Amino acid sequence: MKSQKEKIVVAMSGGVDSSVAAALLVKKGYDVVGMFAVNYEGQNKLGNSCWRGDYEDALRVCAKLGIKLLRLNFAEEYKQKVLAYTYQEYEKGKTPNPDVMCNKFIKFDVWLKKIKELGYDKIATGHYACLRQNFSNIAPRLFLARDKNKDQTYFLHQLNQTQLKDTLFPLDKYTKKQVRKLAQKFDLATQNKEESMGICFVGEVAINQFLKDKVKYSPGNIVLGGGEIIGTHTGLPFYTIGQKSSVLSSQFSINRKNEPLFIVGKNLTKNELVVGFEDDPLLFKTEIKLANFHWISELEPKLPLQCQFRLRHRQELQTGTLYRHSKQNESQKKYILKARQPQRAVTAGQFAVIYKKRLFQGFECLGGGEID
Questions:
Q1: pTM recorded for the entire structure
Q2: Is residue 2 part of a domain?
Q3: Which of the residues 62, 102, 130, 307 is marked catalytic?
Q4: Is 102 labeled as catalytic in the residue annotation?
């Protein structure tokens, strides 16, 4: 880290990770200010603002650390840059990843620009990720965090050099267990707070419930790979590839009775949901088409590229080769990822994130693209 006189804004979510990130920077002597961002104006079951409880937790932490807490409202930016994208992707039959877009367009773009306007130097977050920069004039590089189970580079792979050079990840060398112990050591109000597993901009609300009055959808048939109709679905946006189907094989004239069925595809033209058994070939792919590819370094490496990759957060790194798509122009940024082993539930709208092992440094996150 650079000069400890830098003015750092720590994005405070009201959780233990961002709380400890702030405490660590205060301990190192930085000029630290907390920031709580209001991104969604919904209400909880009690009729209170959905962010109120987290904001109060962030206030308690900042009071303990002796730093002030800014509360800024970015709900309109969220609506335009994250919610609109999310609804559009679901209506297309895809399963989007709003957390990736949130980091790209909100946390490390809109937030960062705002704190710069307010006179601060950098933003820090509680993400588990590692930034490495040997010299001041060398581009920052993104690596896996020490805690491989908590690593969040999957969600950060769309960031660019401008964003990363003004970012700090204070938890890069800590495991989640160590972060909990540090929260106890610093006596922070969030030390025993459970992790939120909900939608990034809403909270712990079922996605189907949230989407029902936000996207267009219509019921249709559930079919087997051969076209046999075996049921009806409520709307393609409410299903994702690999999900267990509620339709039971025992209800139909299928040879393999009492085995669960899984969603293996979507026929958007016919508005059909395709299901099959766990070993259905439709559920596995070795060749994955990627669009809108982003390189963190802003420079494409030599291709074909032998690499590691993951198709979802916390998936173990897989081995494959990345190729340029043969039929495209320079502006399309399309690629083909050929996996060494078949990949289950490759889902359009999610992201394939590419990694490369570096000697003595671990795995570097190079970037990624949207599964087409």
A1: 0.93
A2: no
A3: 102
A4: yes
